[in-house]
Design brief:
The structure is a single chain. This protein is α/β, with parallel strands linked by helices. The protein is 51% helix and 12% strand. It has a 5-stranded parallel sheet, with helices on both faces. The longest helix has 22 residues.
Length: 206
């Protein structure tokens, strides 16, 4: 399998699924949401799986599903807890670049609603702050590229991503086709066709 996929990791609310669709459009890639893949295979919502299988049971399912992803030319948006699944993360790193979408705790608190309904994997009594502190070192451990989203609108995040991704490709000739065929002009021209990006400059990513 070619190592040309892009896997997005990060906290719930970081915009992995939304940004993943945008990046897939820019690069001419497919898009895969691994949480939706879990729900499809299990025929249950994420929070139902957690309620019925417990924390460890959900991790086992999440690890199995993500470790079995077999695809090329795809942007993969993962669930925030995938970094607990070492087998899955090693697999995802073996089939492409892993990109960590970094956002502050304060920004995440403003974005997130009911964590349980979002299918966020929380231990008994765990807070968003403690979850954040637990996961950030894991995101940084597995990331090939870190994209800081703080205070940026969609277009800025995409430009920031492309700058870092292109540099990564140029130093590691796995897929130079991207560097040759996708320019910042193409990124800019593709962005204007996305209604989600047609927002005031004072607004940031949701």
């Amino acid at each position: 399998m070619k190592m040309n996929n892009i896997t997005l990791i990060g906290m719930p609310g970081a915009g992995k699924s939304t940004l993943g669709v945008v990046l897939a459009k820019i690069l001419g890639y497919e898009f895969l949401d691994s949480d939706l893949l879990i729900q499809k295979e299990e025929k249950r919502r994420l929070y139902q799986i957690i309620d019925e299988e417990g924390e460890e049971g959900f991790k086992t399912i999440e690890n199995r599903v993500n470790a079995s992803i077999d695809t090329e030319n795809t942007v993969i948006a993962t669930g925030g807890s995938v970094v607990y699944c070492s087998e899955a993360m090693e697999h995802l790193k073996s089939i492409g670049k892993v990109v960590y979408l970094s956002l502050s705790l304060e920004s995440l608190e403003k974005r997130l609603g009911n964590l349980k309904k979002r299918g966020v994997l929380l231990k008994e009594g765990q807070t968003l702050k403690s979850l954040y502190e637990e996961r950030v070192p894991l995101y940084e451990k597995y990331a090939d590229i870190v994209v800081d989203e703080e205070g940026k609108i969609w277009k800025q995040v995409c430009r920031h991503f492309w700058k870092h991704y292109r540099q990564g490709l140029l130093s590691n000739c796995r897929s130079l086709l991207f560097a040759e065929c996708v320019t910042m002009n193409e990124v800019n021209s593709n962005l204007i066709f996305f209604p989600v990006l047609c927002i005031e400059k004072s607004h940031t990513i949701e």
